[in-house]
């Protein structure tokens, strides 16, 4: 066991590390050694640290996503968006290797895994490289195959999650190109990977904030960064130029569309009041919105402490017996009409059961998803399909927040959640 102490004296900070195993001296701990630490300056405004007009940091972070997304895009695109290209400085020397990889392996835990899952289709589509998904702990448990010809992309908000770091060591040992996507400059993940992108979604607030903080805007910023990764990797293909330009236009529109979704706050509070004493909430999604379903359910269970599950809608007929359902649906795209009509059939099956059904769809589509007003519908603006998960998760974040408050749980100090999961 290692104990670290901090002493603040005469305007200076001393850090001491007691190593329980090494430092024993006649039954007591030996005098600690002073530890040299690199100082990093937090580039934050006072308003970022204060809760401002918000009741809780979680609420503030949900509502500040238009700004965090703008920052993420401004800092990584280097103004190059005007010419409809994306420049990821941290990756530019490795793009050729990524394009030639046998496969891209996304690795992460929890919310970061979900963000990677949301980005998988667009990375596959634009790069033409197959993408596989790995939950970090499972990759390590299985010692799953990782090859020199692979690019392993590690996604982590904190950059310090033990499972993800262990998977990173494993991928490095196996010779893969390791790319990091993290919010934390100087984190272990940023230091150990060969190259990477910093999402710049905002600094951790500190004492009062919890594991639940930061992950709201990290999720949406991570998806944006991975869409940019897809654009950069697929950047030299003429065949997908129109698609790439549409995505870049969509990225630029995103902050204003997020603002529009945030106006659903009262509606989500009202919905939370309706669901307050329910036992369970099932969230169905398919295609790009499978990840939305997983992430929405994760938020509900970790902060509102209500049982919730994200389910791939295609699995509906293979077991789940829903009572309360929140069905995520996003459509309008020619390419995904197939997906859309399948989701509509899932909605019909859900309607046939006795449960309460809530459907999320793009603006203007409520009449077709809720024939004769048969279920409650939440409309979100339409954006390029691969960016739709950024908008669709926000009502679920708001729902989780309001459920937490209404159920009387502590939003600032969620039970059993540590800031970074640094143990396995
Ligand atoms: C906490 O709110 C997250 N839901 C949690 O799942 C987190 O994403 C996970 O522990 C991984 O953390 P990381 O992104 O810092 O690696």
TrEMBL record:
CDD domains linked:
SIS_GlmS_GlmD_1 (cd05008), SIS_GlmS_GlmD_2 (cd05009)
InterPro entries, per database record = GlmS/AgaS_SIS, GlmS/FrlB_SIS, SIS_dom, SIS_dom_sf
GO molecular-function annotation terms? carbohydrate derivative binding; glutamine-fructose-6-phosphate transaminase (isomerizing) activity
Pfam families, alphabetically?
Answer: SIS
Organism superkingdom: Eukaryota
Per UniProt, the keywords (alphabetical) are: Repeat
**Annotated SIS domain residues:** 94-239, 271-414
Repeat is among the record's keywords? yes
Example GO biological process term? UDP-N-acetylglucosamine metabolic process
**Would the keyword Repeat be found if you checked this record's keyword annotation?**
yes
Listed PANTHER family:
GLUCOSAMINE--FRUCTOSE-6-PHOSPHATE AMINOTRANSFERASE, ISOMERIZING, GLUTAMINE--FRUCTOSE-6-PHOSPHATE TRANSAMINASE (ISOMERIZING)
- The name on file for this protein is DH200=94 genomic scaffold, scaffold_3923
Q: Which organism is it from?
A: Coffea canephora (Robusta coffee)
């Amino acid at each position: 066991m290692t104990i670290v102490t901090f002493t603040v004296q005469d305007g200076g900070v001393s850090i001491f590390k007691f190593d329980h195993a090494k430092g024993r001296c006649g039954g007591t701990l030996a005098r600690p050694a002073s530890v040299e630490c690199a100082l990093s300056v937090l580039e934050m405004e006072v308003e970022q640290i204060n809760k401002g007009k918000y009741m809780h940091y979680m609420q503030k972070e949900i509502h500040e996503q238009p700004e965090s997304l703008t920052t993420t895009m401004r800092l990584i695109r280097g103004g190059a968006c005007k010419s409809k290209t994306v420049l990821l400085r941290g990756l530019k020397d490795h793009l050729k290797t990524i394009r030639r990889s046998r496969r891209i392996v996304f690795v992460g835990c929890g919310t970061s895994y979900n963000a990677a899952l949301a980005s998988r289709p667009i990375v596959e589509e634009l790069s033409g490289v197959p993408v596989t998904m790995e939950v970090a702990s499972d990759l390590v448990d299985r010692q799953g195959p990782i090859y020199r010809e692979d690019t392993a992309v590690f996604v982590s908000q904190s950059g310090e999650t033990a499972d993800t770091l262990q998977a990173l060591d494993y991928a490095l040992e196996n010779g893969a190109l390791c790319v990091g996507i993290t919010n934390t400059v100087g984190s272990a993940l940023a230091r150990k990977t060969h190259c990477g992108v910093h999402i710049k979604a905002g600094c951790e607030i500190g004492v009062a904030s919890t594991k639940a903080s930061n992950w709201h805007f990290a999720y949406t910023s991570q998806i944006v960064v991975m869409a940019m990764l897809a654009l950069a990797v697929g950047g030299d293909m003429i065949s997908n130029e129109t698609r790439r330009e549409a995505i870049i236009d969509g990225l630029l529109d995103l902050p204003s569309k997020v603002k529009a979704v945030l106006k659903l706050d009262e509606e989500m509070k009202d919905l939370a009041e309706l669901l307050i004493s329910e036992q369970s909430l099932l969230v169905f999604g398919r295609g790009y919105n499978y990840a939305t379903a997983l992430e929405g359910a994760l938020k509900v269970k970790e902060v509102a402490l209500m049982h919730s599950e994200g389910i791939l809608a295609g699995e509906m007929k293979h077991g789940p017996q829903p009572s309360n359902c929140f069905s995520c649906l996003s459509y309008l795209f020619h390419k995904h009409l197939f997906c859309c009509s399948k989701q509509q059939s899932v909605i019909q099956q859900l309607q046939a059961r006795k449960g309460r059904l809530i459907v999320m769809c793009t603006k203007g589509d409520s009449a077709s998803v809720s024939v004769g007003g048969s279920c409650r519908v939440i409309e979100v603006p339409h954006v390029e399909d691969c960016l739709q998960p950024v908008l669709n998760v926000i009502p679920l974040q708001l729902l989780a927040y309001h459920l937490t408050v209404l159920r009387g749980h502590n939003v600032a100090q969620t039970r059993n959640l540590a800031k970074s999961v640094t143990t396995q």
